[in-house]
Each structure stands twice: as structure tokens, then as C-alpha cells.
Amino acid sequence: MPNHVCVVGAGSSGLAAAKNLLQQGFTVDVLEREDDLGGNWNYGKPFARVYRSTHTISSKPGTEYTDYPMPAEYPDYPHHTQILAYLRAYAERFGVTERIRYGAAVERIAPERGGAADTRWLVTSNGATTAYDAVVIANGHNWSPKTPAYAGTFTGETMHSAHYRTADVFVGKRVLVVGGGNSGCDIVVEAAQFAERAYHSTRRGYWYMPKYLFGRPADQVGDRMLALGMPLWLRRATATFTHRLLVGPSSRSRLPKPDHALFETHPVVNTLLPYYVGQGDIAPKPDIARFDDRAVHFTDGSSVDVDLVVFATGFNIEFPFIDNAQLNWVDGRPRLHQNVFHPSYDTLFVAGLIQPDSGQFGLVHWQTLALARFLAAVRDGSPQAAAFRAEKRAPASGSSGGVRYKESTRHFVEVEHWSYRKSLERVAAMLV
Length: 432
What we know:
- The protein has eleven helices and 27 strands.
- It has helices spanning 12-23, 60-63, 80-93, 182-194, 218-227, 232-246, 250-253, 272-278, 361-380, 383-391, 417-430, and strands spanning 4-8, 27-32, 100-102, 106-111, 121-125, 128-132, 134-137, 144-145, 151-154, 157-160, 174-178, 197-201, 208-209, 212-213, 216-217, 268-269, 282-285, 288-293, 295-298, 303-305, 308-311, 315-316, 329-330, 333-334, 348-350, 355-356, 414-415.
- It has a five-stranded parallel sheet with strand order 3-2-1-7-25, with helices on one face. The protein has a five-stranded parallel sheet with strand order 10-21-11-12-17.
- The radius of gyration is 22 Å and the shape is globular.
């Protein structure tokens, strides 16, 4: 009977997993390699990926845990220091803090018996191995920097956005930021204010949405349309018209023209990028063709000389402490039901392995509530466990909300938050 559970990581996903498992009566050990909780949100820690100016991309209601609202005095888009304080309060409120072991990097996870659905797991940390009835991997997937390869050699400075912290690194330099995601856009905006010259290289044009629409956070406007049951085509038409009204067509905004419909790539929320492009402080550039000393040559035939290249090019999905085969790895990522449930093992889960078009904490609440209830159903011999066991053997459908995402590693774990949450709510409800 599974009762002793190991949670790997004390970031936002690990804390939610521990809290929901504790509420289902499990004994929980949270193993955290850092000396504090918070994961990515603990600024200055070796594996944290926030920079000094980081605020959330999603607003408060779309970011917070479902059962633990953020403080009323928090702004619409909280700063990383406020998020860390919120995570600390959450861990204290639900008795998770005392279950965390710090400085406990996980070196190896292996099944005690190969292939058995109810296998126990041998977890090695700091050279000591403990057998657990179940394991929840929640160490995150935004920690291993991904840097594309280009022809030629660049002799100036390079860095990945994973290691960017403060804008003083830009002072007096010609800077190229590579990557059109939210981090790349934030960083090039900071470069525009501090660098001698700022360039922004992207593989394609994107839909850059402002943080506020008609005085409300943009994601809240989008959720209102979803709550009203508006079909995808109507939401897309409405949002496209609003974007054209507020940002303008690419011929006027000087931004690269998107090669895809709205919603077909991960949303980029940035009010200031069009502003700085419009006044000439950021020069948009296409993809890099090659490097040559300090010169960067682009696919449109243009070139610029720069001193510093910042690669905001995302992260690899890696779980170095467990064999890929144990996570049903296919085509570059784990193939798990709802991105959480292993099709064969009943005692191995991954929490937080999503890239939502919204905030993450609320979705991870539903992920971990569902997995905790399933594990409790397995423990108690409930018939609901057998019913869901059959369901999780097949890949889940409906996590894209009908959107066809552009083919890219960036969208390996992309989910449309509204339909994904509804699906998780259904699973949690059936396992009561």
C-alpha cells in the first residue's frame, strides 16, 4: 500500500504536490538541492532563472494557487520577491515547510522492480538510497539552457538568459538578444534602456500583446471570452482586431509580420517592446545566418557588429537522475497522460511539466490534486483507481483547446489553460 512519497523539488510545483499529498494522508519527503524553497522564484540562487526586474507575465487570478489567493495588496503583476513570499506563506500554511530537506540533490531514481505498476522507487540523494512507495518529479524544466548552433565563430561576449540578472551588463555595449519569447522581449527592452545599441533577432514575427486591454490585465479579458463560451474563431478574430487597434499592423509598427494566426505560438505579453521598436531603440532582425568575429550576419543579408549576444532561446527538458525510458520518453520529451501520469506505472508522476498560455500555479494545483487522489485511490483499493488506470494508458486529448501550435520544441509541453484545467478538474472529481 503506497504511503511514503518522495517529491523532488521545493519550487512552486513541488510545494503543491507535497501539500495535496499531505492532505490525502501520505507521509511526504521533499528533496530540494538548494538551501531554500522557491525554485525559479528565489532570485540569486544557482538554479533560479528570474532576473532582478522579473514580474509575472500572467496576472494574479491566473497565477495563484486555486485554494490560496494572493494577498489583496499585491499588484496585478507581482514582482518575483512577492511571489517568493507567497510561496513561503503557502508552504507554512499547509504544513509543507517541515517536510523539506534542503541540500538534498537527487542523484538517481530507479524502480525497485522493473515494469511493475505498483513498483517502489529507490531514490539516491547525497549518496544515501531510500525506498519510496511513490515519486513525484517536480524539479522544473526551465533550468538547463538551450543554445542553438550557428555557423562561424563569435569572438565577443555571450550569455544565456538563464544567467542574466541585471541590466548593468549592457552599459556601453552593442547588444543582440536572440529569441522572441517573454524573457527575450523583457531583456531586449532592458538593453534598449542601457546599451549603446540593441538588436533583437527572432526566427519569425510574433503577436506582441500589451499587458493591459481596456484597463484590465490582458489575460483576464481573454478568460472572460472563454467563460462566455466564445468559439476559437471568434476569440481569435476579436483578439486580432484588438491587437491591430492597439499595436498596429507590422507595416506601421516596424515589428516583423507574424507567419501564423494568433494563439498558434506561446503568448508574448509585452507592452514596451513595440514602444522601443517604434522610437528606434530596438532594431528587429531575422534569424542569424552566421558569426564572423564581432559581426553577426542575418538571413536577410544584413549584418551588424555587436559586443554581447544574449541567447534567450529556452531550456532543454531534462531529468538527469532518471532514465528516459522510465518516463516513457518519445520524440524529445516524456509522453505522459495529462503531462502528469505515467501510462504504466501507478507510482511515478511529473508535476509542472507544462508551458501554459496562462499562469502555472493554479494548473499545477489541479495536476497534483488529481495525482494525490489517484494515489490515494490506489492505496485504498478504490474502484476509481482501476477506472482511471485504464484511461491513463492513452495520451490525453484536448489540452490545446483546438489550437494548432507551430511546430517547435518551444511547444513540446504547451497547453491551452482553459481546456486543460477543465480536463484535470474532471479527473480530480472522478477520483473522489
